[in-house]
Amino acid sequence: MSLFDLTGKTAIVTGACGLIGRKHCEALANAGANVVVADLNAEACAAVAAELPGGIHLPLAVNVTDPASLAAARDQILAQFGHIDVLVNNAAINDMFENPALAADLSKFENFPLATFQQVLEVNVTGVFLAAQVFGTPMARQGHGSIINVASTYGLVGPDQSIYRNEAGEQTFYKSPSYPMTKGAVVNFTRYLAAYWGKDGVRVNTLSPGGVENSQDEFFIKQYSAKTPLGRMATPTDYQGAVVFLASDASAYMTGANLVVDGGWTAI
């Protein structure tokens, strides 16, 4: 089990206050890491950090689309811990429309708003690029580190729009183009970084999770689960083992890979 030990390591999680981000932080803390809880809201970060076991955990308000915000965070982390060992690039925007009555129409490719597309691109791609650049550079200088870019099954396969159709046959929503497009970019950006920083001892891998059950409509949960060999959606804790594996020496000879944890969704 020593292969999975992260004692003394400094691990940064972006988007740390979200449903899955909190569990990434918890998993890394349980493995012994000092966790930097990074998200937009300082109070939310402090609340998450206060709940983590062991270690010295640092809450930081960080905007992954702002180079100055990231640089200030990097400087504060290095001043406190002296090194950065793990980055989990988890911050992302998923498809959301405030008015459910308009969701089916606005989420169609033909109607998808350019401003929404650009916002998702900025966080899901530019944010991953910038965080890797700012936090990964000290890793390369010190000669070791692990970057985990969180993508999605929809970065690998096209969305099945039928699972968003309710019992009456009405299309309540379309999985829009921005999320799959940006997550596909993350997968190949991982390969780029793995090839670029391999000589410097920085490993870069993708974690591609499947859908997490989180109070969605019952028809959606049922239809998603029916397409999954394990017969269910993920729970928020289902990715904890994968994160610790990729962060630790247990995956020491693994870089440029895409670890798909989706209950078998992409296997069929």
From TrEMBL:
<dbReference type="InterPro" id="IPR036291">
    <property type="entry name" value="NAD(P)-bd_dom_sf"/>
</dbReference>
<keyword id="KW-0560">Oxidoreductase</keyword>
<dbReference type="Pfam" id="PF13561">
    <property type="entry name" value="adh_short_C2"/>
</dbReference>
<dbReference type="InterPro" id="IPR002347">
    <property type="entry name" value="SDR_fam"/>
</dbReference>
<comment type="similarity">
    <text>Belongs to the short-chain dehydrogenases/reductases (SDR) family.</text>
</comment>
<protein>
    <submittedName>
        <fullName>SDR family oxidoreductase</fullName>
    </submittedName>
</protein>
